[in-house]
Amino acid sequence: MSRPRRCAVGTLLLAGALPLGAQDTTARGVRIGLRYDPGSKPGVIVLPISGSAGDSIRTILERDFDYSDRLSVVPLDQEDVSVLEGSTAAGSTPELNYSIFAKVGAAGVIQTTITTRGLHVALHDVVKAGVAAVREFPLPKPEYSREWRLAVHGVSDAAQEWITGERGASQSRIAFVRSYVVRVVDSDGQEEIALPAVAEALSPSWNSQGTMIVYSTFGPDSRIVLQDLRSGRTRAFGSQRNTQRLTPVFTPDGKSVVYALSGETGSDLFLVPVDGEAIPRKMTVGRGSRNWGPSFSPDGTRLAFGSDRTGHPEVYIMDADGTNADIFTAFDFGDQNDRTSPDWSPDGRQIAFMSRIDGQYQVFAMSLRDRQPRQLTSEGENEDPSWAPDGRHLVFVSTRTGTRQLWIADTESGRLRQLTQVGGTRVPAWSPRLAGK
Amino acid sequence: MTQMTRSFPLVLALASIVAVGACGKKKPGAAPAPAMDAPTTRDTAAERRARDQAAARESARMTAEAAAARQRMIDDSIAGASGADDSMRRDSDMLRATITATIGFEFNRADLRDDSKAALDAKIPILLANPGVSVGIAGHADERGSTEYNIDLGMQRAATAKRYMVERGVAASRIEVTSFGEERPVCTENDQGCWTRNRRDEFEITAGGPMLAKPRS
Q1: Is it true that domain B93-207 has CATH number 3.40.1190.20?
Q2: How high is the pLDDT of residue B23?
Q3: Spans of all domains in chain B
Q4: Where are the alpha helices (DSSP H) in A314-369?
Q5: Which of A180, A216, A313 sits opposite B149 (nearest CB)?
Q6: Is the dihedral of CA A98, A101, A102, A103 positive or negative?
Q7: Which is more confident, A87 or A349?
Q8: All domains of chain A, ordered by start, with CATH?
Q9: A54-67 as b/e, with b when 16 or more CB fall inside 10 Å?
């Protein structure tokens, strides 16, 4: 990755203080003076922030912008920072020399002030030479807490929306399993926590509000476990002799769970309401074949899943009522490579999956429109892709470092970053955008 | 925790047995007074003494012989019994090994290979001869493929073996199937040899298995 050359802020002219406009004067989704092209990466400068948590906030914002792969962060030299400090007193906005910012490749400048309630953030449009957006963001206390960090990610995402027209996805988390315990980490790899262990867990998945996680346990007492992240309460159901329950997902309305029940005569998908004791409804008619790994389209009308009904595993799509099942990954006749673990993108346009190629599993994405598979990985074994809420990034498991780790790929640029550092990490599930408490 | 609560009443019971035993023991120092031996014959003291000594010798000899005979009988009985036991135990261990022998599978497949069918064919008559025995079959997979897919694959591998045995007369209720997917590997090398060993069904006797009877041939 190449960064724009360093910004010579030392030559900035800080001419007086401009009074700030009223809060939220700009409409959501305002764009700065450029036509944003998904292939481009407008430069953005995050000005130093005064106050005890200022450096941390700035670090989080810059890292989120970098990880977004939609913006390139223009760094500032340390000596330049000293020039700016003292001029950015609370409640005042120094007038910036936009021509200098334009020369170093910045399209936008983020100016942040810590207030008693949170952050006051202004986006300067370098092309139009003026303030494009101003907004107050409340931050929960205490500083540096998990919820505080999540709120700062929300500032990043809003700023990305101002600049690119599309909200960022950094205010999200990734659930995964290590040593059979469900763990949750922020999108930037910070603040990893473990959920209480009920039994040996696999296959975590989020509801569309990001308030609950459902997962399965395996072995003789295989169950489905619902974990409420706000109350901490868990509820498990389904223990039954001679069966395994696996790959649970919430329906998009959050009212039901669809999972695979693997028994003595194959496996089928079943739907059961989250509340109450209703009898699970069978959704697939496998007739002894295996059917598992469901993933809903964002509108909830269709369902992708893995099935070996034609001999070896492929990805199928059916209507949410279980009818009209049709093969999605229709590859060449005679191709015995299997394709499994579908994950429908949040924008509804693509399905990611894993496929065996030359004896190793790799991550693919395929658009529903043209059905041209795109191979996104090639190094090591790469499995279990899950889309970010931006519909652009994927988290997946890779063995490329020698141990199983979570990696994140930008499906536009192919850029990769390693999310976790401890081996034996797997079955990731990216949350929806989280609003915080 | 369960272990604790379960053993606690046992400890109490043992303690009370010890207490009861202590109470039941007789106190020393209360021996009965010896009876007075009145002289009833006119034999001389020397004659009486000689007769008594002879009788005592004879009695001692007989007692010793009886004791030896009794001991021989006990020894013979123990030897005979344990000989039969050893042979039965050896048979039972062999039968157990046959029942718990692992069977293998091909990559990505849950159907039975010929050698796996032969291994199951050896288990079936033993299970039929021991109707009190229940078994658990756990299907396993190698590390390739998704975690969840392998749980499902392991389940189907266990189910295939169960189906084969049920079709040949073993009651379905005696066989419980589960899956551990790729979660319990017997080896972790990243090569074909290890993957082959990990693609397996494991068999466990879950009930009724202390002594197994040989099937009648």
Answers
A1: no
A2: 41
A3: 93-207
A4: none
A5: A313
A6: positive
A7: A349
A8: 9-164 (3.40.50.10070), 173-430 (2.120.10.30)
A9: bebbbebbbbbbbb
CA distance linking residue B58 with residue A89, whole number of Å? 123
Closest CA to B105 of B136, B148, B133, B144: B144
pLDDT digits over A309-368, tens only?
988 889 999 999 999 999 998 766 667 778 999 999 999 999 999 999 888 999 999 999
Q: Do B130 and B169 touch, CB atoms closer than 8 A?
A: no
Tens digits of residue pLDDT in B145-191: 889 999 999 999 999 999 999 999 999 999 999 999 999 999 999 89
| Residue A250 clears pLDDT 70, i.e. is over it | yes
| Cα–Cα dist A160/A67, whole Å | 11
* Rounded Cα distance, A311 and B139, in Å: 20
CA distances from B28 to A131, B17, B157 (A): 108, 22, 71
More confident residue, B195 or A286: B195
Q: How far apart are CA A121 and CA A350, in angstroms?
A: 35
pLDDT for res B74? 77
CA gap A21, B8 in Å, rounded: 74
A262 → closest Cβ in B155, B180, B183: B155
Tens digit of each residue's pLDDT (9 = 90 or more) over A263-297 = 998 999 999 999 867 889 999 987 889 999 999 99
- CA distance, residue A291 to nearest chain B CA (Å): 9
Residue of B nearest to A241 (CA): B176
What residue type is A91 in one-letter code?
A: G
Say how far apart CA B102 and CA B116 lie, in whole Å: 9
Tell me if A284 sits within 8 A of A307, measured CB to CB. Answer: yes
Strands (DSSP E) found in A285-404: 291-296, 302-307, 314-319, 326-327, 339-344, 350-357, 360-367, 373-375, 382-387, 393-398
Instruction: Establish if A202 touches chain B: CB-CB under 8 angstroms.
Output: yes
Which percentage of chain A shows pLDDT scores above 70? 85
CA-to-CA separations, A218 to A70, A201, A272, B92, B106, in angstroms, rounded: 40, 7, 19, 32, 22
**Which of B144, B148, B156 shows the shortest C-beta gap to A247?**
B148
Of B108, B162, B180, nearest to A219 by CB-CB distance is B180
Nearest-5° Cα angle at A424, A419 to A429: 50
Q: Rounded to whole angstroms, how far apart are CA atoms B7 and A305?
A: 49
> Taking a C-beta distance cutoff of 8 angstroms, is the pair A261, A267 a contact?
yes
User: How close is the nearest chain A Cα to the Cα of B183, in Å?
Assistant: 9
Dihedral angle, C-alpha A79, A81, A82, A87, nearest 10 °: 150
Q: Does A247 touch chain B (CB under 8 A)?
A: yes
What integer best gives the mean pLDDT of chain B?
80
ipTM value: 0.81
Best mutation site among A200, A216, A244, A406 for testing chain B: the one with the most B CBs within 10 Å? A244
**B176 in contact with chain A, both atoms CB, cutoff 8 A:** yes
The DSSP result for A266-292, as a single string, is EEEEEEEESSS-PPPEE----TTS-EE
Size of interface A-B (CB pairs under 8 A): 89
CA nearest to A51, candidates A104, A102, A118: A118
Say what the pLDDT of residue A389 is: 97
Give the per-residue pLDDT at A310. Answer: 84
